[in-house]
Here is the input.
Amino acid sequence: MRSRIRALALTAACAALAAPLLTAPAQASPAPPRTGFEESDGARWTSQPEEQRLLKTVDKATDRVSVSRIGTTKQDRPVQLVRVGERRTASTVLLVCSQHGDEPSGREACLSTIRDLAYAKDKKTKRFLSRTTLLFVPTANPDGRAANTRGNSDGVDINRDHIALQTAEGRALAAVIRDREPDAIYDLHEYGATPKYYDKDLFDLWPRNLNTYGAVHKEAKALSLDYVRPAAEADGYTTGTYGIWTDPATGEPVKQVAGDGQERILRNASGLKHAAGLLIESRVDPLTDAEKNDEALNNRRRVHSQVSALGGLFSYADEHRWRLEAASTASRLAGLRDRGPVYLGGADNDPAEPAEVIADPACGYRLTPQQFADVKDELGLHGVTVKRDDGGVLVPLRQPARALVPLLLDERAPYHLVTGQPDIDC
Here is the structure.
């Protein structure tokens, strides 16, 4: 009887202990972090400490996201890469946000998109991230963003450093492109309008460099014309081709003021490195009197138009992933065939002059030991392979980077690193 009483007492005690656990309300999941831009409703841009807190929170919240440092600026700020995806995939898209430090809307769009993708629970997003890996460089120019300047802390325009690779920021991006081999590269910027000829909400442009492989060029234009522009227009934003003034009455081109084929710009370097590149530019200037009187309203339009266009990018990446991967692979294989001319100038809308065409390229370029020592790091970052022999170093054209090699080493190329000696007997 005593043992039975003891057992009943023990049971009652356990029930009493368990009762609060059974009746306590479930703990709510922490709310997703917000950017400084969102907290202020567009009155100010997200600070760098706020960015770091958001990325740290998102990194810890889910295995879907990982954050890593890929470089360090001269002022000791991190250049970071954010991977978003459910698992390792064949298809990869790289988003480069705010290379120009005084163009912050792309960075804000990237930060809020990283957060939204990290916390998304819908089947469509999960399926997309199971088939495509997204890589974000949320602040490609941290020193410039801190100072609100176009260039980095040395005043160098990073978007003119994708051949020379003299900046820490440019080198970090080159290493990511070499190692991750993205199939598409999306580069977010802003522009100043010239009403009435050049004043759309968003402009974009694909690689114009004539060395871009045909299938890659075709995919980049499809990204623009069939996905990014329609997505933005569906949300009420006007779109057009970057660098082209148009007659407001007829819509016909008037003149070209930007957007050529020079290889040192990321948009064109993307094509040379087998990726469907796209430059996207949102309008900085106020569109209405309301935006003139309310800077936050203008800022929100700048950011929201970028977010709208991102929807087109993601739809394209999902629906075109097989064609995109095939185009990128074919571009690499074309270099191994080592056939066809190499263009030192011109663009897809501006035929190269005869002097800008190497109709029958040599099989490679020879560098002296000293020349190679001067540029070996840059060649390595570009993914260029070399062969050493008794005569120094041979950089063959028969490699995936074929179209890039003469642009780096031929004395006629406008941005070449060093003057190599053409070799016709490799």
